[in-house]
Description:
Elements (H helix, E strand, L loop, with lengths): L2 H21 L3 H11 L5 H26 L4 H22 L8 H17 L13 H21 L4 H13 L3 H25 L5 H25 L1 H24 L2
Helix pairs in contact: 1-2, 1-3, 1-9, 2-3, 3-8, 3-9, 4-6, 4-8, 5-10, 6-7, 6-8, 7-8, 8-10
Amino acid sequence: MSETVLLLAGLAGMAAGFLDSIVGGGGLIMTPAMLNLFPELSILQIIATQRTSSIFGTSVAAWNYLKHVSVPKSALIGASVAALLLSIGGVLLAKRVDAEALKWLVLAMCVALGIYTAFKKSLGETDTSGTDTRRITDRAILIGGVCGFYNGLIGPGTGTLLVFGFVALVGFNFLRASALAKVSNVAADIASWTVLALSGFVLWKIAAVLIVGNVIGSYLGSRLAILKGSHFIRLMFLGIVVLLVGKLLWDLSQQ
């Protein structure tokens, strides 16, 4: 494990954190980088180690967003608790079912939400959530729970799905949706990460380098998103959906 390899891992962590802090999808960068830089590691070691850094980075992004964006506390707490609890359920179910078979469903879902977002030009540009806190909280809990379960069961694209859910079903603009998505994503990641960490899959020397890179990237990415606003995040969202569809198609073609 040379210094050059660790440096490249840190740079990959920074790029992943930057992208993930805006609209999710950091795993599209981090997972291939880890597989190439550390081919001797098992897939569980890779997932556990990179998830360690993403928890830190996403927490920094969430803190950054919440300093500038207002989100009802009941929605924050409700969505986060639901995401954490249902993520545990997803992890447990993943041991019993073939999660790979569900990727066809995820692929169809990603294509559908990409088309919907592309053709509905006003989606997420303005906030239409209203002032009914009970309605906002109930829908946030539903979205956090469903996406948390997906995170534990399959994983890729959880942050992006959270953003879309909070925009389409709650009515937040992309900036507020990203703020709530970051908090919910951290909660969901903590649940599955804990299982992996307690099983000894986290390699802390690599994780420390990734944490530094991810935190820097997450801070810079969230700052850029706050400055550019919802229109910028919407464009990034569409780009990530295209990449997710491409990744899923590639994965399915290799089966």
